[in-house]
Amino acid sequence: MRAEVPDNEAKQKERTHTMSDDNLVIGLPAGSLADPARGGNLINLLKHAGFPTKGYDKGGPSSFPINAMLVGWDGRPQEFGSQLALGEIDIAIAGDDWIRERVLEYKYEYQQEIELKKVMSLDRGGVRIVAVNRPDESAVLSEDAWLTRLFSSSPLVSMVSEMPYLALDWLRGKAQALGFGASHDAYAVQKYRTPPRIASGILVYEAWGKTEAKVVNGSVDLGLEITQTGSAIKNYGLNILAELMSSETGIWANPKLRGNAAKLDLARMFLLNLYGSIFAEDKILLMFNVRKEDVPRISEYLQANHLFADEPTVHEGTKFVEFSVAMNTSDKALPLAKVRYELAKLGATHLETIPLDSTIPGLDVVDI
Fold first, then answer.
1. What confidence score (pLDDT) does residue 30 get?
2. Mean pLDDT for each consecutive 10-residue tract of the chain (368 residues)?
3. What is residue 140's predicted lDDT score, i.e. its pLDDT?
4. What is the DSSP letter of 338?
5. What is the pLDDT of residue 125?
6. Cα(301)–Cα(174) distance, rounded to whole angstroms?
7. Using an 8 Å Cβ cutoff, are 286 and 352 in contact?
8. Which of 238, 309, 348, 368 lies in disulfide reach of 288, CB 3.0 to 4.6 Å?
9. Between the CA atoms of 219, 222, 223 and 227, what dihedral angle is there, to the nearest 10 degrees?
10. Cis peptide bond prior to 124, omega within 30° of 0
11. What are phi and psi of 295, to 5 degrees?
12. Based on the number of CB atoms within 10 Å of its own CB, is 301 exposed (0-12), middle (13-18) or buried (19 or more)?
């Protein structure tokens, strides 16, 4: 008699079956990016793109019920860089900063250079990565002058961050540029606050949050912080010594994806429709009727205000012409309310404003 397959083994086999070599595996970030109430709203973005998800709103497991060739992989943006490098996932939604962190970890810990490509911006999750220190004399010293003093007086310079390899790469680069490459060549990345493994050089502690408190209490010489407004840094009375990079959320891919024609085609489809959803977020379709005798002056107004590209979209009837025009609702120089009013003055009637879920300029917006 054949033994029954345990439930967990059966589920694993089922999942393996769905993740064939031709499926596109997509890293879906948990947390604020997915949450409509916290600014990311990826769930609605994917829905408007034509890829509604199942389970993503409940923390997983996530799937794409009407797109069987797309496979959702729930995870954290902190991990997606490594998963892309290993080929565990094909594309991922993640911040520039966490991808860069994983690339540098491969470089420093495993002596491997990995190539990952950002193929699309999502216009979300904008943050700055900054180095912070206690104010003392830093208010009157430049970044280089303060660091020169620090390297000169401290054989072992310590830093703390949630992104230790970004911190290490920046601090090592500054040491070399300021003439301290030899004296501070050694480095160690270790958990906060474990005994130092080196006597001199650069020591970076990896910590999970409250970087400001560790800096302000003097546990380390300086810290690396992720910030949007800088308010928490100011609340702790700390100084922003340098800005290392700005970061936003985007779609990242392993360039090896180009070697699989089926996956590449799926990726292009996914990106094209996602672009259309993003591109439409601040756009509407304005439709209105115009008597034929009023068409010339309406067309002149639309052309003068650049409200169409090659030519306006029109549908001619016996006595009326129907116009449809796509508009950017965030244009302060040409507000929607003003356009509707001025078109009405020129003879437009039955003005209808239709929200857009997607608008796709063409296939050339996809680069992968």
1. 85
2. 44 45 93 60 92 92 95 96 96 97 98 96 93 81 95 98 98 98 98 96 94 95 94 93 96 94 96 96 95 95 87 89 94 95 97 95 91
3. 76
4. H
5. 85
6. 56
7. yes
8. 348
9. 130
10. no
11. -60, -45
12. middle
CA distance 285 to 367: 27
Which residues face 118 on adjacent strands?
A: 252
Report the alpha-carbon distance of residue 290 to residue 114 in Å, rounded: 58
Amino acid at the residue 101:
E
**Residue corresponding to tokens 């250079």:** 113
Is residue 350 exposed (0-12), middle (13-18) or buried (19+ Cβ within 10 Å)?
A: exposed
Q: How big is the chain, counted in residues?
A: 368
Q: What pLDDT does 135 receive?
A: 87
In sign, the C-alpha dihedral spanning 195, 198, 204, 206 is negative
Using DSSP bridges, classify how beta strands 222-227 and 117-133 pair: parallel, antiparallel or unpaired.
antiparallel
Residue 189 bridge partners (DSSP): 204
Angle at Cα 320 formed by Cα 319 and Cα 321, nearest 5°? 140
Say if residues 291 and 324 touch (Cβ distance below 8 Å): no
Residues in a beta bridge with 353: 286
The amino acid at 367: D
Token pair 């180009």 is at which residue? 258
pLDDT at 110: 96
Contact 91, 253 (CB under 8 A): yes
* Residue 202 to residue 225: CA distance in whole angstroms: 18
Torsion of CA 253, 257, 258, 260, to 10 degrees: -160
Domains of the chain: 7-125+249-279 (3.40.190.10), 129-247 (3.40.190.10), 283-357 (3.30.70.120)
Taking the C-alpha atoms of residue 47 and residue 31, their distance in angstroms, rounded to an integer, is 18
CA–CA separation, 325 and 344 (whole Å): 14
Phi, psi of 87 (to 5 degrees): 80, 15
DSSP annotation of 54 reads: B
Which amino acid is residue 45, in one-letter code? Answer: L
CA 297 to chain centre: 44
Strand ranges (E), 179-292? 187-191, 201-206, 222-227, 239-253, 283-291
Token pair 């793109």 in the structure block, residue: 49
Spatial separation of the C-alpha atoms in residues 161 and 212, rounded to whole Å: 10
